[in-house]
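Tokens for Serine/threonine protein phosphatase. Go.
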Amino acid sequence: MIYSTRSVKGQARDENRDCVGAAFDGVRGIFVVVDGTSKPGSGQLAQALIDQILTRYCEKIASGCSDNSHEEAAVLLKEVLNDAHDTLFSTAFTGSASYLVGVAAAGLLTIAYEGDCCAGSVEISSSPITWFTAPHCLANWKRDRDHRQLAADLGRHQISRSFKARKKPDPEIVTRATVEGEKLVFATDGFWADLSDVTQAQLLGAEMSDPTYVDDDVSWIVVQIPA
């Protein structure tokens, strides 16, 4: 399993409030994208949340917890998110963030997310990404629109779920099998909404330069599933 992570500050941003992180232990890959909101402290929260998720998930696996099924992985992800929430908001952290965590192991992909970070896949090189998670935002309250339609609606900027102090994590869980030879993509809304399908496909290649013309932060992880 080969992966790459990239994050680019938007031209209209004073700081990059996106964060990405990943870990692979030879058996499973853990992939995290977090998009801090405009609330004070959200950029710092995003980085701390990624650190918490990666550290705690690996610790639980090392202690004997299993993620060999979708159900076990989902339980583990919820425990990790609750532990991270208790730790971060009992200290000095403030703000809120969208997040998406994907665990790929043994031919299975389990995703936990809240907010507008999304996951997708590409089975044929250079073809558009097929997004398979629905963003939690005002524009998608009926969950009947595709990502390109949502990208054109300003209501997408009003997220309906997030990681925040006053509410325990309640992630939506999405599961599927991984497909031999496919690429998985985990991205913030700056990637799936502000970039064209063609640009998105081009940026999945490691040799492509970063986009420098977008207002929002743009972050993504590309995972190559072995053939």
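The longest strand covers residues 96-105.
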